Amino acid sequence: MGNKIIFMKKVYISFLALIIMVTSCNNNSKQKDSASTGLSPDNPFAKASTLPFEAPDFSKIKDSNFKPALEAGIKEQLDEMNRIAENPDAPTFENTMVAMEKTGQLLHRVNNVFNLLSGANTDPELQKLSEEIAPELAAENDAIYLNDKLFKRVEAIYNQKAQLKLDPESDRLVEFYYQKFVLSGAKLPDKAKDSLKKLNKEEAMLGAKFTNQLLAAAKSGALVVDSKDALAGLSDGEIDAAALAAKNANQEGKWLIPIRNTTQQPALQSLNVRATRQKLFEASWNRAEKGDSNDTRPTILRIAAIRAQKAKLLGFPNYAAWKLMDQMAKKPEAVEKFISDLVPAVTAKAKIEASDIQKVIDQQNKGNDKFKLQPCDWNYYAEQVRKARFDLDESEVKPYFEINNVLQNGIFYAANKLYGLTFKERKDLPVYDKDVRVFEVFDKDGTSMALFYCDYFKRDNKNGGAWMDIMMGQSKLLGTKPVVYNICNFTKPADGQPALISFDDVTTMFHEFGHALHGMFAAEQYLSLSGTATARDFVEFPSQFNEHWASDTAVFRNYAKHYKTGEPMPQALVDKIKKAATFNQGYSLMEIIAAADLDMQWHEISADSNVTDVDKFESAALAKTHLNMHEVPTRYRSSYFLHIWSNGYAAGYYAYSWTEMLADDAFSWFEEHGGLTRENGQRFRDMILSRGNTEDLATMYRNFRGRAPEITSMAKKRGLTEGKN
Questions:
Q1: 25-55 per-position pLDDT tens digit
Q2: What are phi and psi of 692, to 5 degrees?
Q3: Coil, strand or helix at 652
């Protein structure tokens, strides 16, 4: 798969808090009179957009539109749900389940756009509103799922499900709603429900606060240097981009390297000056631990305590036990075993890699200049080891990965060969930033099937990482088609310069587009089960599977072309990339599973625990499971672990490695059956990508693969079966 592949590219099907996901994702395709909601007809959210696929008209949307529209949407959906609860007729699937699926037209419309802009193009007004509206949305969620009359109707249908003879998807919808109500506390006594409501409200508010703190911390934590010499080792284009970033931050005459979401930063691979590397690493490591208003540690401690208390109220020993009930893993013990089974091979490989790097350091630094490998050195010297071992230089590779060529002739090309899709850019549709591009997606028969928005470059007002989400979900019941988007944080080139990216970034693009395909191919009756609305430890499967096509021979040859000459990458260089595929994978996987383990331990604390120090807890947690190798820091420190504190991956970060196992195992099926063919693509589309959450996910996988998943392919691809690189 090339050089240091990182599989932790994110999908944020992220609403303000995970608990509001279901309440805001149900849409009624029939427009309602805005007067009935109390919302001004001048508000662009008052009616469905008239643009194709009901795509948002960003030319008309203002920050001031969101608060009244969100509040009106909450009121509207509560009224709709209450009418269902108070229906004097006996509960039926149609008057209860289907009726619930049709609620929330306005809330769905406005909340999807609010989630997009508050994550990818935020400002102080949106940040303030996110903290204000989160508890209101949490309260709405509780008003629905703790409504005793509504639950009794759902429970009555659930209890007679066998006699109803529903179709499989409708049957699954009954199970979905029943489990959602029960896990939300529908069976609790009234006093416990009141306590749960307070905790949910506070957690939602703190999740929004954490997001805003972290964005501000990352922005203020960027490394600024006064001398161009301090950036020796970076390319001219990267230095120009750093100068532009400084200028945009009112630091003209200096150079600024922004902080990405992860612990390690891309520039650490190239910076020759060790002092600069140390400063950049420390800026990343300590971004949210400065004792100021952006220090996230007090927020984290309270969120963790709230979650433990909620779990106790709901009858579970800890939050992880509650959260995993509707996941493939089912129990924390299954996750712990999955992680622990990887630790010996991963740590052994990482120690070999560290030894190899230390030898290079010792060779280059004699006498008083000798030093022991530190986290800030790993990527820099690992790159040198890689160059020496495989004669592979990142600067030699990047000119073959120009971002538009990767998109058009790599990602879109693979989607055409596998699924018959074609893409047409729509420059007539309004966007929220000039760097955003929109494509209309056409199915194999020429039918217009979706809109795809992509926003690839880093901005100070954009959350870190990469993710996919929807502006409109698919539902046959509602007559809606998908409008999906991908967000990334690649360094924007200076004006007139090409956007050249690393192979890791190429893999990120393929990954996020895998999520987009999962959303585009949705073919469900019910929005609640549609597309990417699956368990966390399944939703990353289609995206990580799609990463494989980045290095498929036919696809790679079609997009890996020099940005100046158009010449394909020389075969000798291609061979070097392939030979280096398992290089540094001990490090790469160890930082990932360390983060996953840290996540699990935070969410396995009991309500009686008294954790008061974030850093001490983190150190003890990693030491407990032997994942505290100093040279390999966790991919996310607790204080900037956005996934678990605000973006729905609490007790779920393991899902990336779990689904990597599924993805590699599924790709081995393709290898066994002819690889990149329309027939194979159609089978994967029919059995996985278009199925959403309409059946048990383990069963869905077995039906495709012919057996349960095996870890063999993942271990082989990661090089864990090798003694040395």
A1: 333 334 444 556 689 999 999 999 999 999 9
A2: 55, -130
A3: coil
Active site residue 672: no
pLDDT for residue 15 is more than 60: no
The kind and range of the H/E element at 214 are helix 190-220
Is residue 209 within 8 Å of 131, Cβ to Cβ? Answer: yes
Phi then psi dihedrals of residue 184, to 5 deg: -85, -10
Q: How far is it, in rounded angstroms, from Cα 56 to Cα 383?
A: 44
Cβ 668 vs Cβ 705: under 8 Å: no
d(CA 324, CA 331): 6
Is residue 334 within 8 Å of residue 652, measured between CB atoms? no
Look at the block and give the residue holding tokens 């306590």: 195
Token pair, residue 489, equals 């944080």
- 167: burial class by Cβ within 10 Å (0-12, 13-18, 19+)? exposed
The CB density around residue 550, as the number of other CB atoms within 10 Å, is 26
The residues that bridge with 470 in the sheet, in sequence order, are 484
Residue 457 phi/psi, 5° resolution? -100, 150
Q: Evaluate if residue 518 carries a pLDDT over 90.
A: yes
449: three-class secondary structure by DSSP: strand
Nearest to 380 by CA among 629, 551, 631, 594: 631
Are 723 and 351 within 8 A, CB to CB?
no
| pLDDT band, residue 13 (cuts 50/70/90) | very low
The single-letter code of the amino acid at 392 is L
Angle at 461 between CA 456 and CA 458, to 5 degrees: 25
Q: Is the pLDDT of residue 725 over 60?
A: no
Mean pLDDT computed over 544-570? 97
Write out the two tokens for 407.
């998109």
Token pair of 6 as six digits: 């990182």
Cα distance from N-terminal residue to C-terminal residue, the chain: 14
Residue whose structure tokens are 């100070």: 460
Q: Looking at residues 328-355, what average pLDDT do you find? A: 95
Read off the pLDDT of each residue in 693-707 and give the average, rounded to a whole number.
96
Residue 220 CA to residue 42 CA, distance in Å, equals 38
Query: d(Cα 320, Cα 437) in Å, to the nearest integer?
Result: 39
| Sequence-distant (≥ 6) Cβ neighbours of residue 294 within 8 angstroms | 213, 214, 216, 217, 220, 288
Closest CA to 482 of 459, 453, 444, 446: 453
Element spanning 281, H or E: helix 274-285
The Cα 287–Cα 215 span in angstroms is 10
Question: What gap in Å lies between CA 450 and CA 308, rounded to an integer?
Answer: 41
Smallest CA-to-CA distance from 713 within 724, 721, 705, 725 is with 721
**Percent of the chain surpassing pLDDT 70:** 94
pTM exceeds 0.70 for this model: yes
In three-state secondary structure terms, 224 is strand
Tokens of 641: 């672990």
575-584: pLDDT as tens digits: 998 888 889 9
Q: Quick check: 158 and 149 in contact, CB under 8 A? A: no
How many other CB atoms are there within 10 angstroms of residue 274's CB atom?
15
**List 136, 512, 591, 604, catalytic entry:** 512
Q: For residue range 644-694, list pLDDT tens digits in order.
A: 999 889 999 999 999 999 999 999 999 999 999 999 999 999 999 999 999
CA torsion, points 378, 384, 385, 386, in degrees to nearest 10?
A: 100
